[in-house]
Design a protein that fits this description.
homodimer; about 290 residues; alpha/beta; Rossmann fold; five-stranded parallel beta sheet; 12 helices; 10 strands; about 15% strand; globular
Chain lengths: ~290, ~290
C-alpha cells in the first residue's frame, strides 16, 4: 500500500507545528469533535472535510465506507495535516487499521478514547453503547472493550432515527422522547451504569438521553475524549502550534464539504455553537 | 424579602414556553454553560448577562458576590426568564439559597450537578475539586459532597492563575503545563480518580489537565451536567419551547455584558465555539 506523503522530508514537513489538524466525517456530526479540539487547542489551524456527497456512512457496507474514508483522508494528507482525526464512528470502524498503515502522521479515532473513559467510569462493569446501524453491526465497540477490559459486559443498541432528529434541531418533544424511551429501554433493563454516545451527533441529544436513562447513568461523549487524545498526541510529539500572541481565532478554521455547501454551513452552525445574535452593553446593575 | 415577578399571573407568564432561559456569570466563563444549554435546547431563547463590570467574582468576599449576583439575577427575572441559571461557581456558592427564595421560577446552579456526576463516577471515593480561590474558600463543594455521599473524600485546590491563561487562549506550552503540574500535584498524590472542573473556564483547559492527571482520572465538567439539569427541569414542568419548524438558530440568543461589549464579544467567540472562517465545496473525491 502506498503511503501518502511518506519519506523523511515530507514527514518533517507534516509534523511542522503550523500544519493543520485534519478532521473528517461523513457529514456534520464530526463537528462536535472539531469543536472540542478547537476548545482545547484554539491556536491550531483546522481543516475539516464533511463527505456529505456520500453521507450518511452509517447505513452503508463497511467495505464501501472504507473506500470513501480513504479518499477523504488522502485529501487531508495532501494538505499536510500533522494529525488525522477520523471523527466518525462508522469510518473509525471501517478504516482505522488501514489508515494507521497508510499515513506517516498519527491517526486518532473516536472509538478507543470513549471505550477507555467508559472503562474508567463504570462501577458495575455494565456499559451501554448506542450508535448508527453500521457502527453497532461492525462490533468494533465490543471488540475494543474486550481489549481494554474483558470483564466489562457491553450492551449495544442501534438508534437509526436519532440523526435526522438532531439535524432538524428537534431535541425535545414527545416524538424524540418516545424514540429515546424505545431505544434505551433494553439498556435500562440491562442495568448499565455508563452509556457511550457512539455517534458524533448524539452529544446534542444528551438532554433527552440523560432524562430517559436517569441521573445515575454517566454519559460518555467521544467528542470530548477524542479531543483530549489529540492534545496529548501532539503534545508528546512536540507538534503543538505556538501561541503567537494574536487572538486565538486568528488560526484558520476551514470547513469543507463534498456536497451542497450551503446546507452544510446551515447545519454546521448548529453543531459548532450558537452565533451571537446580539451583544450589548447594559448599564451597571449596581453602583 | 420581596419576590421579583411573584404572583399567579406573573408566574404563569414567566413559565410560558417562549420565555427565555436566563443565564449569568461574572464574565465569559458561563458561556461554556450557555453553549451546552444551546446544544441540548437549540429552540430556546437565551438571555446571557456577563457582569464584566464587576468581574472576576472569584477573588471577592462572598457577601459582596451575593450583592452583585442578586442584581444580575433580578435583571434576568425582570426579563421574564422561565428559569435562571447561575453559571458561575462562585456566585452559586454565594447566592443560591437566597435566589431560590427570591424568584418564583426554578434556579439551577453549577455545583450540585457536578457533585452528583462525580459521586456517580468515582470508584475509590476520592474526588478532587479545582476552582477559583473564592469557590474553594467557600467550602460549598465539600458541603455538597457531604450531603450527597458522605463517604467521599474531597480534595480541593484553588487554581487562581488558570483563568487568565484561558482568556488569553494560552492552553498549551511550558507555562500552562508547569502551572497545571504545580496545582494538580497534591490531587495526584491524594490518588483521586475523579476531578471536578469547578470553574466554568476550566473545560477549555481539559487537554492539559487530562495530560497532567493521566488518562485514568475522569474529568467532570459542570457545564455539560448543568445543561442536562436545565433540560430535565424544563421538561418536567412542561416549559420547553416548541420546535416551530424554523432553523434552530432562529431562536434569539442574546449576550450582554455590564462592561466593555467589544472585549466581551471577542472573548465570547472563544467560549461559544469557532467561527466558520470558510465553508467551501470541494469536488467529490471519488467517482
Amino acid at each position: 500500500m502506498n503511503k501518502i506523503c511518506s519519506g523523511d522530508e515530507e514527514t518533517r514537513k507534516v509534523y511542522a507545528s503550523k500544519a493543520p489538524i485534519g478532521i473528517f466525517d461523513s457529514g456534520v456530526g464530526g463537528l462536535t469533535v472539531a469543536r472540542s479540539i478547537v476548545d482545547l487547542l484554539p491556536n491550531e489551524s483546522i481543516v475539516y472535510i464533511g463527505d456529505t456527497a456520500n453521507s450518511p456512512y452509517g447505513d452503508k457496507p463497511l467495505s464501501q465506507v472504507q473506500i470513501f474514508a480513504r479518499a477523504v483522508a488522502d485529501e487531508l494528507a495532501r494538505r499536510d495535516s500533522k494529525i488525522i482525526v477520523i471523527a466518525c464512528n462508522t469510518a473509525s470502524a471501517a478504516f482505522l487499521a488501514d489508515a494507521r498503515k497508510r499515513y506517516p502522521v498519527p491517526v486518532v479515532e473516536v472509538i478507543l478514547p470513549a471505550v477507555r473513559r467508559a472503562v474508567a467510569t463504570t462501577r458495575n462493569k455494565r456499559v451501554g453503547v448506542i450508535g448508527t446501524a453500521g457502527t453497532v453491526a461492525s462490533g468494533q465497540y465490543a471488540r475494543r472493550f474486550r481489549e481494554v477490559d474483558p470483564s466489562v459486559d457491553v450492551f449495544s443498541q442501534a438508534c437509526p432515527q436519532f440523526v435526522p432528529f438532531v439535524e432538524r434541531g428537534k431535541t425535545t418533544g414527545r416524538q424524540i422522547l418516545g424514540l429515546a424511551e424505545m431505544y434505551l429501554e433494553p439498556l435500562k433493563e440491562a442495568g448499565v451504569d455508563t452509556l457511550v454516545l457512539g455517534c458524533t451527533h448524539y452529544p446534542l441529544l444528551a438532554g433527552v438521553i440523560q432524562l430517559v436513562m436517569g441521573d445515575d447513568v454517566t454519559l460518555v461523549s467521544s467528542a470530548d475524549e477524542t479531543a483530549k487524545v489529540v492534545y496529548r498526541t501532539l503534545s508528546e510529539r512536540g507538534a503543538l502550534a505556538e501561541h503567537d500572541g494574536r487572538h486565538a481565532s486568528a488560526a484558520c478554521k476551514s470547513f469543507e464539504s463534498t456536497g451542497d455547501p450551503q446546507k452544510f454551513a446551515n447545519l454546521a452552525t448548529r453543531f459548532l455553537g450558537p452565533d451571537i445574535t446580539s451583544v450589548a452593553q447594559i448599564p451597571r446593575l449596581l453602583r
